[in-house]
Amino acid sequence: MIVLQDNFESKLNFKTYIALGSFDGLHIGHMSLINKTLELSKYNKVKSMVYTFNNHPLSIINKDKVPKLLIDNESKLNILDKIGIDIVNLVDFNIDYMKIAPEQFVINMLKFYNAAGIIVGFNYKFGYKNAGDVSLLEKLSKILNFELIVMDSVMYNNNVISSSRIRNLISDGNITEANRMLFQPFMLKGKVIKGKQLGRKLGFPTVNLQYNTEFILPATGVYYTTIEYNGIFYKGITSVGYNPTVEPINIKISIETYILDFNKNIYDENIKVYFIERMRDEIKFDRLEDLITQLEKDKFYAESQVLQKN
Fold it and tell me: Which single residue of 65, 166, 192, 230 has CA 20 to 30 Å from 259?
């Protein structure tokens, strides 16, 4: 897969079918559009391209309104590579880019990226002040002679799937519902850092995740998770919260995971934590013995689950 960061500077010498969108979550609505692009590019024997952003447009337009991330660019690229996309263009959204007129934007698609076809969602907006829409694309497709495919919304439980809907579900702790709309389970990744090692004293040694604060965080609670370390998957129990039993004045959310059947020291190494199901609320126990009893129940539940390998 070719990865570009090109703001209408390079010219491709082969035909393309291009999926346009922010694709900020890679949910199944996004994937329906991307899979259509793959299908059409193969049928027409040309290259497939996903044209999206390196940074969220609101990071330039209004920083205070930038939404929390559902997926980072590296993970997004890995998924698109696996499904067979030929080219991904991660465009830098900046002031100059923001000022491109809608008509010029489409002309540039043909001029620089040799677009034979363009695939968009039903509510796609583009160009300066979002003045371009599907109606304009339909007119330009006839004038400029390119194929336009407009994808309908994808529904789940009688509502349109959207990144904002998924963010709300995750922040409410409804991971199961959120995952039904995502291409892969919601994931946080980062370096393992040293904590106070209290879990080790209780017989449940945990790894503390140095997470990226730009990501949406699940609601506080205890989750069944799968952990990816060096390409191998393990079952886990992950606590998102303040550890009220042992840290009564903790003000920073911690993400701690007990990895089943795992006894390596992995400080300063990277892991991925995939959230599968919320098991229970975070509880403040009066006695450590009661906490240990609950952790044994959590472990039993996690052991009974089927290990998912994403």
Answer: 166
